[in-house]
Amino acid sequence: MAALLRRSLSSSSARHDTAVLPILLKLSISLPYCWHDSRCSSSDSSSANFDLTDLTRPHMWYPNARRKRRNVFLHVGPTNSGKTHNALKQLESSSSGIYCGPLRLLAWEVSRRLNKLNVPCNLITGQEREEIAGAKHSSITVEMADLTTNYQCAIIDEIQMVGCRTRGFSFTRALLGISSDELHVCGDPAAVPLIQRILEITGDVVKVQYYERLSPLVPLKVPLRSFSNIQTGDCIVTFSRNQIYQIKKQIENERQHLCSVVYGSLPPETRTKQATMFNDEMNEFDVLVASDAIGMGLNLNISRIIFSTLKKFDGICTRELTVSEIKQIAGRAGRFGSKFPVGEVTCIDGEDLPLLHSSLRSPSPVLERAGLFPTFDLLSLYSRLQSTTYFHPILEKFLEKAKLSPDYFIADCEGMLKVAAVVDKLPLTLHDKYLFCISPVDMNDDISAQGLIQFAENYAKKGSVRLREMFTPGSLAVPKSQNALMELESIHKVLDLYVWLSFRLEDSFPDRELASSQKEICSLLIEEFLGRVGWQNLGIYKYWLSHILLVHDELG
Ligand SMILES: Nc1ncnc2c1ncn2[C@@H]1O[C@H](COP(=O)(O)OP(=O)(O)OP(=O)(O)O)[C@@H](O)[C@H]1O
Ligand SMILES: [Mg+2]
């Protein structure tokens, strides 16, 4: 267990990625984490003026993968076309392997699938470690990809995420860095030219396999207009949390349906439970109200996707959904093998139909560039050259100076810079600061940001962060209002952050078990709230309704 954790954790922070040897030779600096690779050093050390901010050859950061001539299979096609399924078939029959997905829910789904098939499979995400005895396979979130192990088979799912401004670089890292004989890459055809260009220089053998949708997706000509037209199996998509609860309430007020909800800030365990309740035919929660958190790879029993809007706030501004976002979300309807083999898609408002229809007809725009982010090794060396351990100016300056090839863009580091400004005030090492910066904190959420600040301050002051000093177990209660619910979601995020830190600074964050159990309680209380918001007395109401109708019939 310990060995596995050490391996995945060291790889997760990407400390060992870079071919630092040439730089070390030039600068006569030694770092404890560097590895030596003759192929990298001989090619790169020939450069007379090595420029740390030159990121034009990121494939050379990964000597392990470069030692192999990988067979790369691109499984591309529309949603629900069997891409992931076919890649997983290869993984299941391999002697060792790894699945890298964009979401914890997908990683869970895959580890469950493999274990059910008697292929022991670990589950490793930023906040979970489930090690299965004798496992040669792991299902992970892409940030956790271990680039030091050799696999027979690896999968990177939803590869179009390389274009994501914040997380794209982790997909690029996995794509360039996983050391595997076979690499199966699944996703949107829009990513093919970019992936081919990126891998051209690596010497890998790339084959493209195109897929067709396994079940039809029918764009409806009429909008929904009113929630009284909602049917079992419908999923209403909207992008604000408030809207989700308003729509749930409106639908439940009609007294015909109960709604499960899925959105980004719900704890992942709660999201899974809500999705499972909706998928279960025997359950009364037969309608789903969700954000685009359902947009990737999940298999849900949705018959009809109904967009309540085609606009969303993306953290910077309110904008129209892109063609690929619309297709990705719409594609959740009518999953192959589900009880709704034909999917339908429409909007609430008739004005949105032309955009919906044209988007579904259009190919997704071709991806131009993949995300990139300097490794810790590079940033660390750069800080020595700048003679400072202030992380904010180092990162800002590095990003400003960074030189890239046209196939890449530098990741959006706004969130990291916000954290850097906070941790720079504390007496921490550069690596500690870096860890806090890459942690999954939501700096736009006040409680979450406060949690990080307290953790960092206590860690800097005392070297040890005890959860009980900041949080009283037993103080959590079922929320009574939307505001209290939001607060509980934020507390869950803080506890989640504690668990994340506890895997990386084990001795200083010793209360992982307590944090995990309190996280679980948060999820249960949130679920309890979601159940109470729902129309509780559906069974009684149905009985009452049928009784009234019967009496009415008898009265003739
Ligand atoms: N050959 C097959 N036999 C049985 N079930 C299949 C087969 N191919 C796909 N499926 C099932 O169809 C559903 C959709 O497949 P899959 O998840 O692989 O689609 P996808 O193309 O990866 O979709 P997305 O782009 O949404 O991730 C899944 O439930 C999967 O198990
Ligand atoms: Mg898939």
What are the defining features of this structure?
globular, 42% helix, binds magnesium ion, 15% strand, alpha/beta, 18 strands, 8-stranded mixed sheet, 6-stranded parallel sheet, 556 residues, 20 helices, binds adenosine-5'-triphosphate, disordered N terminus
Oligomer: single chain
Q: Rg, please?
A: 25 Å
What is the strand content?
Answer: 5-15%
Tell me how many strands there are: 18
What structural class do helix, strand and pairing data support?
alpha/beta
pLDDT under 50 segments (min length 5)? 1-49, 535-556
Mean pLDDT: 86
Q: How would the global form be characterised?
A: globular
Strand order of the largest sheet: 4-3-5-2-6-7-1-8
Query: Describe the biggest sheet?
Result: 8 strands, mixed
Bound molecules: adenosine-5'-triphosphate, magnesium ion
In whole angstroms, how far apart are the ends? Answer: 72 Å
Count of DSSP-assigned helices: 20
Give the helix level as a range of percent.
40-55%
Pfam families: DEXQc_Suv3, Helicase_C, SUV3_C, Suv3_C_1
Keywords: ATP-binding, Helicase, Hydrolase, Mitochondrion, Mitochondrion nucleoid, Nucleotide-binding, Nucleus, Transit peptide
EC number: 3.6.4.13
Cofactor: Mg(2+); Mn(2+)
Explained architecture:
Pfam families: DEXQc_Suv3, Helicase_C, SUV3_C, Suv3_C_1. With 556 residues, this protein is α/β, with parallel strands linked by helices. The chain has helices spanning 2-12, 21-27, 38-44, 63-66, 83-92, 104-116, 168-177, 192-200, 241-253, 268-279, 323-330, 353-361, 376-386, 391-401, 414-423, 430-438, 446-462, 482-504, 512-533, 538-555; strands at residues 71-76, 97-101, 121-124, 129-130, 137-141, 150-156, 179-187, 205-210, 217-219, 234-237, 258-262, 285-290, 304-307, 311-313, 318-320, 343-347, 370-372, 408-410. The strands form four sheets. The chain has an eight-stranded mixed beta sheet, with helices on both faces. It has a six-stranded parallel beta sheet with strand order 9-16-13-10-12-11, sandwiched between helices. The chain has a two-stranded antiparallel ribbon with strand order 14-15. The longest helix has 23 residues, at 482-504. The N and C termini lie far apart (72 Å). Magnesium ion (MG) binds at residues 83-84, 157, 186, 297.
